[in-house]
Amino acid sequence: MRIKNTLINLIYIWGSALLLLGLNLLSRRIFLNVLTVDYLGYDGLFTSIFSFLTLSEMGIASIITYHMYSEIATNNTQQIRKLLYIYKMIYKIVGSFVLVAGVVTSLFLPFILKEQMAGEDRLFIYTIYYLQLLATICTYFLAYRRILFVTHQKIYFCTTVDTLMSIVSTSLKIFVLIRFQSYVGYLLVAVANNIISNLIIAWWSRKKYPEITKVKISKADIKELNLGHDVKNMMATKIAGTIYGSSDDIIISGMLGIGTVGMVSNYRMISAKIQELIISIFSALQASIGNLVYADEEKKGVSFFGALDLAGFYMGLVAATGMIVVGQDFIFFWLAKSELQLPLSFLFMLSANVFVAICNNPMTYFRNTLGHFETDRDYMIAAAVVNVAISLILAPIVGITGIMFGTVIGHLLIFMGRTVVVYKYYVKEKPYSYYAKFLFRMVLLGITAFAALRISSLFTIDILLGSIIVKGIISVIVATAVFLASSFKMNDFQTLVSYIEKVIEMVLRKKKAKGNM
């Protein structure tokens, strides 16, 4: 049943991601033809500001989610109802705080955007700021019931709604850009999409889970969950994670200009879509991991973790190698403007960060399911401090590459902390052997990228799209060869193959059953 639900989730998520990828690429190309790259910079900067404001959420979503997995495993409907409505109550408080804090923060925009506020219409900048603030707070008031689909392994319900709404909204955005050339109209469509999709999912969740009805929550219920203990430990992690994840755009804006933020966003969009496609595999498995952890299947779970970790390495190797080899060509093919290309050294650092992110995902999902938020707290704090320090030191020297280097080093520290949690509380081993293994994997990434670049340079193809396709195929072949050569003798590899065989067998059996009908 776990494999079946995971497979259904994955099909929906991948289908959605691929469809939306095409639309988003077209939308971004039209956006940059109609408007300037600075508008993308505003989007990135304001998103980073709102990330700091949403610190008030204190990681409640993660805490409630891991509590809910254990209750679903024992089918405790009453406790699930309480958890959901505690979640709703806290999110209303957080949403109200973010609204007030957002209004107060807007008073400081003239200091953050000195040149832009002096040279452009202040009303326009305030308008786009408040529209993005509205889109942010909508999530806190409307999206709380999504958690039911996630924890019940039915995330494909949310994916279906989000995909259909995104198709409509992206199409409308393209129309608004072409017909009206209006960034404000573009943002209004995004806000409407957020509101409508969350309302539909909330309605659908009530139909799907009619037993999860409103329930009165007492102080005793909240105290029983020991949320104070978890929030206290999560808060430092949340603050550090937000500083780590959101400081880059603010530093780039202050030291390199708002236009550079926009240029970086183009590269991030591609890397984010690649990660979305790959990480969706692990996302589809999140509830299965929660069930394994809380269903006393520890031996099976550890074996499953080893297989997922190896799969993460393979997918990270393919993705990062492909980005290094074809990244610059794709940016030029997509946007048709060489001035929107950033240095190759930045692309190397971004690709390394994608590699760490994808390899990190199996560890992240097990870590989130286990809880123990205090254990990797210091690693998160160190990651935030190191990222900001390195970025500030290197930005004046090597520009955007130095900021991205700080991001990679910080990400490695986060990875180390999550490894400590999983190995201490689940694998029950010291993590040092895993650190050595990952260091070796980083070396393999360097070898793979170098080999793929050298082999690709032997082929000269005049048509840019043809060159991208050939280089992409070479990247996949070289990465696959390196992965097989380094992994095929491992026990984890055999476990991974057995899971793949089960999935294939299930698909073939389902196909055969349909054929006999």
From TrEMBL:
The lineage of its organism: Bacteria, Bacillati, Bacillota, Clostridia, Lachnospirales. It comes from Kineothrix alysoides. Pfam families: Polysacc_synt. The chain crosses the membrane at residues 7-26, 46-69, 90-111, 123-143, 155-178, 184-204, 277-295, 307-334, 340-358, 379-397, 438-457, 463-485. It comes from the Bacteria. This is O-antigen/teichoic acid export membrane protein. It is a multi-pass membrane protein. It is found in: Cell membrane. Keywords: Cell membrane, Membrane, Transmembrane, Transmembrane helix. GO terms for cellular component: plasma membrane.
